[in-house]
Amino acid sequence: MALSRRNIHIVQVLLLLFLIALTVVILWPFQQALDRSMLEFRQQLIEYLEGRLCRTITYRSISPAVFRHLEIRDLEIFDPGNAGEALLTIRKLRISYSIFGLFTEEPLKALREIRFENSSINFSMQQDEDLYRLFTELADTPSQEVFGEELYEGLIVSGRNLAFYYSDGQQNIGFDHIFFDLTRENEGFGFEIRGDADYSNKQPTVPFAEFSSYLEASGGINLSGTRGEFSLLMRDINSSLFDLSRITFFVDYSPDILHVRKIQDREPFDLSLRFDSAAGKAKVNFIGEDFRPSDFIVPRGSLSTYSSWFYAVVSGDGQAEFDLDFTDVDYQGDLSFELTRSNLPLPFGGRINFTGNTRRVEVDPLYLESDRGRFSYRGDILLDSLLPSGNLRMRDVVLPTGDFLNGDLSFRRSGTSVAAAGGLRIGDVLFPDLAGRINRKNGGLGIRASGSSRVRKRRPGLYQSGGRILHRDRVSADRRTGSGYAAGSFV
User: Fold this and answer.
1) Strand partners, 64
2) Cis (ω within 30 of 0) for the bond into 365?
3) Which residues does 336 contact at the CB level (< 8 Å), separation at least 6?
C-alpha cells in the first residue's frame, strides 16, 4: 500500500534526526580532539612568544573561527621587572592556521599567517626605556632565534594599518599607514613593506630639519638577518632642503658592507654608495651625461639661495670617500658644466678636473668661459686660508671700462704667504714684470706689488702698491653681514 504524503514527511524527518544523531556520535570524538588541540595550540603559541621575547604576555580575549584563524585582542607585553604596566599593546592579532596541522605532534607548524592589525606604538626615549631595551634586544637577536627555524616554510608575518612614532625630545620620527608581509622561505625571509615616513628636528642649527616621503621596499634577508638585498622606492619627498618626485635604490648588505645604488629611472646620471663598517669608511660615486639637477630636484630652504646653480648641465664623473664624522675626506672628479641657461648675472661654462681632501683641493685644470672672457687655473688651493699655488691664465676678459684684460700669473705658496709674478695687459697698457706677495695675518690679507708699465707711444713708468684687505663676518640667525677695508698707493 502506498504511503501517504503525510507519512512520507514523517519518515524524512525521522531519517534527518537519525543522521544528525549519527553525525554527533561520530564527530563528538573529533570535536573533543579539536578542542584539546586548539587549547594546546593557544598555550604553545603564548609560551612560544614569551620564550622568544623573554617577557610576560597577556590578552583580553581569544576568538577562534574554527577551521580558519584565531583572533587575539589587546595582547600586552610586560617587562619582567615591572608587571604593573604593559610595555607594548597590540590591539588586534590574527593568527591563521591549518586545521589538520593542529593534530600533529608539533601544533606550531600549523601556523600559516600572523597578522598585526590597526595598532600603533608611541615611543619616547625619556619615558620608555624598558620598551627601548626590548627593541634593542630583538635587534641584537638573530632572526632565526626570534621567529624560529622550526616554523613552517611559507609562514607569513604581516601587518595592516600600523603606525610607529619615536621622540627623544629633539627629534621626531614617524611611520604611518604601514602595511607589510614577511614570508618564511627556504633559506631566509622575503618581505614587502610600504608606508609614510616623517622626520623633524627641533634644533635651530640643523639645516635638514624636516623630511617626509612615501616608502616602499621589497626583497629578502637570510635567517640571521645579517645579509639581504631589496629595492627601496621613495616618492613624494618633501624636506627643508629639497623636494623630489621619486627615486629608487637597490640595497644589498652583508655583515661588513652596505651597498646602495640608484635604479629604475631615466635620469641621465648614476649614483651609488658603499659603506665598509669594519673600516668605518663610505664611498660615493657619481657619473652623468647632460644632467640638469633642476629637472630632478627642487632646492628649498638654505639651498634655495643656490637655485641658479641647479640649472647647470653637468657631464662627467666624481667620487668621494669619507668617514662618518667627515674628519677624513678624499675626493676626485672630472666634470664639464654649462650655466648659460641660468639666471646668474654672468652665465658661463667650463670644466674642472680635481682631487682633494679636507685640507686642499688641486685642479688641473679649472677652466671657465663666457662671453666676457676665459680663465684657466692649474694648481691647488688651501681650503682654510684660500691661498693658491699654481698658474692663472686670463684671455679677453672684458673689464667694466670696456678694455680687455689678458695675462699670465704664477703663485708660489710658502707658509702663510704667496709670492706672485707674471705679466698683464689692460687695453694698451702692459705690465710685463709684475711681482708681489700676499700675506694672511690678523684676519685679513696683506698685499704688496711692484713692477713696471709700458704704454704704446709713451715712455715706460714704474708703479708700486701696498695695503691690506680686511673682511669680518658677523652671523645672525637670519642674515649674514660683513665689513671691509682696503688701502694702497701708486707712484
Assistant:
1) 70
2) yes
3) 314, 315, 316, 349, 350, 351
353-383 as b/e: b if 16+ CB within 10 A: bbebeeeebbbebbbbbbeebbbbbebbbbe
For residue range 269-301, list pLDDT tens digits in order. Answer: 999 999 999 899 999 999 999 999 999 999 998
Mean of pLDDT values over 6-18: 61
pLDDT for residue 6: 59
Q: How far apart are the first and last CA of the chain?
A: 149
Contact, 429 vs 451, CB < 8 A? Answer: no
- Burial bucket for residue 424 (CB in 10 Å: 0-12, 13-18, 19+): middle
Judge contact between 278 and 340, C-beta under 8 A: no
DSSP code for 186? S
CA angle 342, 347, 350 (to 5 degrees): 110
Which residue, among 404, 406, 409, has the nearest Cα to 427 in the 3D structure? 404
Report the distance separating Cα 366 and Cα 391, nearest Å.
11
C-alpha to C-alpha distance for 477 and 204, rounded to whole angstroms: 9
Cell numbers linked to 21: 544523531
How does DSSP classify residue 300? -
pLDDT band at residue 486 under the 50/70/90 scheme: very low
Asked if pLDDT for residue 469 goes beyond 50, the answer is: no
Residue 154 or 399, more confident? 399
Entry field: residues in the chain: 491
**In sequence order, which residues have a C-beta less than 8 Å from that of residue 483 and are 6 or more positions away?**
470, 471, 472, 474
H/E run at residue 251 = strand 242-253
297 and 242 in contact (C-beta within 8 Å)? yes
Domain edges within the chain: 23-117
Residue 490: closest CA among 441, 432, 447, 444: 447
Alpha-carbon gap, residue 154 to 162, rounded angstroms: 23
Q: How many CB atoms lie within 10 A of CB 447?
A: 19
- What are 480's strand-pairing partners? 475
d(Cα 384, Cα 357) in Å, to the nearest integer? 12
Q: What is the pTM of this model?
A: 0.73
Task: Record the cell numbers describing residue 349, joined without a space.
Answer: 661654462
C-alpha cell at 248: 629608487
CA-CA-CA-CA torsion for 427, 431, 435, 440, nearest 10 degrees?
Answer: -20
